[in-house]
Write a structure and sequence with these properties.
With 362 residues, this protein is α/β, with parallel strands linked by helices. It has 2 domains: 180 residues, Periplasmic binding protein-like II (D-Maltodextrin-Binding Protein, domain 2); 151 residues, Periplasmic binding protein-like II (D-Maltodextrin-Binding Protein, domain 2, 3-Layer(aba) Sandwich), CATH 3.40.190. The chain contains 14 helices and 12 strands. The strands form 2 sheets. Strands 1, 2, 3, 4, 6, 7, 8, 9 and 12 form a 9-stranded mixed sheet that branches. The protein has a 3-stranded mixed sheet with strand order 5-10-11. Strand 10 and strand 11 form a beta hairpin.
Length: 362
């Protein structure tokens, strides 16, 4: 490894050491990242949901391929898509990317704005959990479909509400106000939650629908990024919020058992999340959601997370580099999934994703 590349790797690790509410590299630190001599710099931005896994992937890949440096700015799916489209007036040259991350994929309208075409490549999958901080509560919190949708609608506001007590008859539920923690940035994690809420609660569907950005009702505490939500839950007595499983696990947060379509209360585990996606039949564009999955043991809120690629790249070296990077992530990289709280992609999904990557043109 050359001294220049070693410095680039250390800089990359420093970027991912940033903590706080969805923080990413500053414009100054981004500008300091350069390609190794004779090599390639690949820049990405977007979803915070897969950030820990992407951090692992891109660092390991850089150590194995010393001619490639990969940086990823975890700014949320919404801003990642905007930077991928690249047409907002407030974007600068420093915001340009070779790929993006989104837990909501892209809509047809968004894809139509991409001059070079867009490919939606499922890279990983995971559960969105409802993590909580209830003082004095023992055991596992069970939330019915009516209860957890009511909490986010703002119609259930006390922890000892009868609709919560009904499924936790032996629990000591305190008479305190529920403090909801939610995302203030456009988020694919929000999309996964609201897609499920729209499926299980007509009132939510009519009022908000499935969306990446919500005008949250009541006194909802708003913050950015999965790390921001998880941190706020840990600090706030009486709180509940939605985050990727791995973020809740790393902070030691309690996670609710949620009622699924079959009427069972399911804990978020690798097994229950895999049960949700086991029968996935991917459409041609590889965009598939699970708003209210079937299955006795399926966990109800699971999502793919996509990496967005251009169909064509002006620079043939970058085209080749991004293709090799993605194929490594879809194969060797999947081995890191379970350790970090993600779901390893099924073989049929990997095959379809690799085929999409191979279609990228210089």
């Amino acid at each position: 490894m050359t001294p220049l590349h070693r410095a680039a790797i250390l800089t990359l690790l420093g970027l991912f050491a940033v903590s706080g509410e969805g923080c990413g590299p500053s414009a100054q630190s981004k500008s300091q990242i350069v390609a190794p001599s004779g090599g390639v710099l690949l820049r990405g931005a977007g979803a915070t949901f897969p950030e820990p896994l992407y951090k692992r992937w891109f660092t390991e890949y850089g150590l194995l391929h010393t001619d490639v440096v990969v940086v990823y700015d975890a700014v949320g799916s919404g801003l990642g898509v905007k930077r991928f489209i690249g047409k907002d007036a407030d974007l600068t040259e420093a915001d340009a990317v070779e790929f993006a991350g989104s837990d909501a994929a892209m809509t047809d309208a968004e894809i139509a704005q991409v001059d070079r075409g867009a490919l939606l490549v499922p890279a990983t999958a995971g559960a969105v959990v409802l993590a909580y901080n209830i003082p004095g509560f023992k055991g596992d919190l069970k939330l019915s479909r009516e209860a957890y949708s009511g909490i986010f609608l703002g119609t259930i506001t006390q922890w000892n509400d009868p609709k919560i007590a009904a499924t936790n008859p032996d629990a000591n539920l305190p008479e305190i106000t529920i403090a909801v923690v939610a995302r203030q940035d456009a988020s694919g994690t929000t999309y996964a939650l609201t897609n499920n809420l729209s499926a299980v609660n007509p009132q939510w569907r009519d009022r908000f629908g499935a969306t990446t950005l919500v005008d949250w009702p009541g006194d909802t505490m708003r913050t950015s990024g999965n790390d921001g939500v998880a941190g706020r839950i840990k600090q706030s007595v009486g709180s509940i919020g939605y985050v990727h499983y791995g973020f809740a696990q790393r902070l030691g947060l309690k996670m609710a058992l949620l009622e699924n379509k079959a009427g069972h209360f399911i804990a978020p585990t690798s097994e229950s999340a895999m049960a949700t996606i086991a029968s996935a039949q991917l459409p041609k564009n590889l965009r598939l959601f699970f708003p209210d999955p079937d299955g006795e043991q399926s966990y109800p809120i699971v999502t793919f997370s996509w990496i967005l690629l251009y169909k064509e790249y002006a620079d043939p070296h970058k085209a080749a580099a991004v293709k090799e990077l993605l194929k490594w992530c879809l194969t060797d990289g999947q081995q890191s999934s379970a350790e970090l709280g993600y779901i390893r992609l099924a073989p049929n999904v990997v095959t379809a994703a690799v085929k999409a990557v191979d279609s990228v043109k210089p």
